[in-house]
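Q: Structure for this?
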Amino acid sequence: MVERELGTRKTEVLRAVVEEFVRTGEPVGSETVAERTGLGVSSATIRNELAALEELGYLSHPHTSAGRIPTDAGYRRYVDALPPGGRMRDTQRRAIAGFFAETMLDLEDVLKGTTQLLSRVTQYASVAVPPSGSSELVARTELIELGSGLLLLVVGQRGQVDKVMIDRPDELDAEALATLERSLADRVKDKTISEARAETLKAAAGASEAERRIFAAAADVFGDMQVGAGSHHVLIGGVANLADEAAHWRRDTVRRLFEALEHESEMLELLRDVTAEDLTVTIGAEHPHTGDWEASIVSAPFRAGSTEVGAVGVVGPTAMDYVGVMASVRAVARRLSELATELDA
Amino acid sequence: MVERELGTRKTEVLRAVVEEFVRTGEPVGSETVAERTGLGVSSATIRNELAALEELGYLSHPHTSAGRIPTDAGYRRYVDALPPGGRMRDTQRRAIAGFFAETMLDLEDVLKGTTQLLSRVTQYASVAVPPSGSSELVARTELIELGSGLLLLVVGQRGQVDKVMIDRPDELDAEALATLERSLADRVKDKTISEARAETLKAAAGASEAERRIFAAAADVFGDMQVGAGSHHVLIGGVANLADEAAHWRRDTVRRLFEALEHESEMLELLRDVTAEDLTVTIGAEHPHTGDWEASIVSAPFRAGSTEVGAVGVVGPTAMDYVGVMASVRAVARRLSELATELDA
DNA sequence: CCCTAGCACTCTCAGGGGTAGACTGCTAAG
DNA sequence: CTTAGCAGTCTACCCCTGAGAGTGCTAGGG
């Protein structure tokens, strides 16, 4: 579709249709638009504009005598035409400011809180992807003997901790384990997590069976930490909000959405490639992985200094309050960037 | 309500109504019951029985000319009358056996897998509550200096790890920190987690401001571990299955359920007191915290040796396949007990 | 005394017509 | 280019009806 100038009145009309539809959930008629835009033209004129916008593929018609509904392309056009730096409601602004006013030290805790904040503020579901961790440094590794086996523990420079239980190899005595622990620590200390993974895989290759098992387990842990430390890699909040939305949605949309929310890898796919420079809005079928379901994702990355460390986003119906959501997500991402930068210093 | 003998035919009729209703979701008529029970009596006789069962409060009538549907009390009676040791389908049995055939070392990982297993097998949502941990022993504590502050790490005897970030108190140098770390370790090593918590709170009381902060943080971590180590205390699986059920449910039921699933404390309340000796079935409004929503919970504890360590459960509509769910939950809980006992040895 | 056949009765559900209302799209005039 | 006016179209709703499902009751039979 060729990018073409639309004329400010058409843009205005489209805006009115989208916002009214989002507000009421009902198809919007020419009369309503004429009143709401305040353009000072009659509904007949609006009807011509509406017909033109439909011709262009931005609006559609459930049936002859119904009002107009925006298409995905219509939402897209609407979002692209939005003035930069949208407004939040005061309550939203205050909620966000209040949340970040507390002193917080653990980024993972913060992110968990962030999902709740975003979902409360926007009334949709929200997700947060913690730092990918590949370029983090390994601060410490430990091999601890417990009653039930060996516990291998890895601590990252930012306080991320990951672990795995290993069956205790009988052929290794306490001394051998201590040596092994030191050898592992020497190999990975102050390396990045991806380097540490490569290093441990290499070490596993040329070691005895018992040692190999431990190095392999370590490599697994590092692999895990690359995605995000700890046991959950994607944080989610406000799913209950989607239950309300569910009434308007197709059945399979709801199910697929919940499935995606449950499986982290799917959720990561939903957000991958989709989180660009600043703020990204993905509408309905635009997303490569969502097929034709009627959900939109608004997401933004946050950074510590200049390296990208994670992302936050909101998932809701295509008929969502883009202005409010975009402003909220942008604000939260900016705050998170500040916080992450500060924690890093 | 007085517990009264019902007569085997009434029981049989009730059973038929419940099972047919669960299977089809439609109110059940006398004709259907007459055929399905194989009692060899006519539908007229069944009608008398149905009327009696309704009089007793076990069945209800959407309207005059509709069939019967079970009340909560009806499900209760049905469940209580079920022969012990219900049957699973072969596929269910196999799925469970297959899952536990693998060797597994980390109970938390196992529980995560368990929720997925149970939800796949039953087609409802499932939850797992990990060991409460109060009586676990503290295996190790560490105070690690990172770029961004101090990381306090606690490792439990079973491999549970919990942590908290603390702002580095400027007035403590490396040596003071080392002393503090040793002092903390001495106080809590090999104590139970509840003892450790009490101990740290005591230590916090009579310490300098900087030390107090650290002991207090430690107490927080122990407090956290009492509920369940790591960042999630209740594990959940198969929420997507509830989305399908949602069509049959009242709106607020769905929302409240999702909210409960999101807030761990609520979920713990749902399962607390509800998990008795063996297998517990809570039907609809029976549960003190669910108000009048139409959901049932089937749960069972699992133990390591003789101490109760956790619980698993399934959440679904009151019209659920109790036989299959009860058998599955019981089987999974038994397997988990075996595994937990073995890991403990 | 319990069971059963039969029947009148009740109530829902699906479908058909008929109407009001909501919008559109077109046309002709400003 | 805009607008008023108007015919045309389609849905949503209501009302009605008939079919069907299922009950409750009664009277007769083992």
